[in-house]
Amino acid sequence: MDAAVTGPSMPDVATSRQAGETYRSLRELGVHERPEGWVVARTEDLAVAVSALELSVALRGPTHGALARLQCRMARFSDDAAHRRRRVLVEALLPDPRIIEPAAAARTAAGLDFGEAPFDVMPLARTVPIAVLAAALGVSAHDLDRVVALVGAVCAALAPGAREPHDLTQDADAAATELASHLAPLVPEGQDEVAAAISVLFQARDATAALIGSALIAPVTKAVDDCASWIEWTVHHDAPVQCTRRVARADWAVDGVVVPAGSTVWLMLAAADTSPGPIAPTFGAGPHACPGWSQALAMARGVVTAVHTAGWRAVPDQLIDYERRPNLRLPARVMLRKQPT
Ligand code: HEM
Description:
Helix content: 40-55%
Bound molecules: protoporphyrin IX containing FE
CATH class: Mainly Alpha
Strand order of the largest sheet: 1-2-8-5-3
Shape: globular
Oligomer: single chain
Number of strands: 10
Number of helices: 12
Number of domains: 1
Structural class: alpha+beta
């Protein structure tokens, strides 16, 4: 095998303003190795990769602490039979999108108490969907703000690239333990059941916030009151989840190369064919495909419609900084202002 191909790092790819160009060049290279691991970017190779038994989603390294133990029980980080069992638990907890869309709109409308002053919508984008999902899981109004804050702490600790599981802080472990104590009474008894409830909130938070923030700055006409079409455009052309990571647990033969056991493999979901289909590539595919895609779209529609209906629009031509994540395209700040009347 030739020396690893160098080029932009994963966070640089995820936050690139020329993502289309970057992805074209990644596709042309086929399955190839870079300093951060192997990259799979062609639609046909991605279709194989998402279901390849040689590729594992499990965490590597020691799994000390409450949060790491919790993460290991989530479907997202489980392979094979354990994955199938845990995924069923997740699917049983997902609320009806028709109920959470108006709930997200109502909660957003209630949070728009900024008078006439421009404001950053990202704090709402990060919290409203989690409050809606937590309420649907049965969290009481009294505990809702606390649960939303704890999910934020867990996500900050687990943000891919931020830290490895064995470095998680005691604060994050305390947050995971407290979160579990809130959710345990609401789900059938069992540690996997609690992990499934927490995983719904954990998986939803940053990806849905990214979708909401990016939809509000989508370069599509805002003349029509069709927030659903901005969201549809965004999932296909400004994907919230750019890529996902696997580890080869055995040699994996693909596209005429052999990815050796032990390698990190990046599946560049956002590089895949973006022609409109029932589910955008950003939601993944195969056994681990996002089970919450229709809930994500529904909550994003609720939030964006409420913001728009109240007369708020993105400040034109603002420079968007993205959080430095290897897998997400998550605007750090999106300023809105009242539409001039
Ligand atoms: C725009 C928002 C979202 C995007 C783009 C997104 C995308 C994804 C992707 C790509 C995966 C697969 C990861 C992989 O294969 O490694 C995934 C998994 C998952 N997502 Fe989402 N997601 C979003 C929102 C949500 C929401 C709102 C929920 C819950 C209501 C959710 C729950 C999950 C769960 C539980 C998994 C793990 C599934 C498994 O491993 O079997 N996601 N998501």
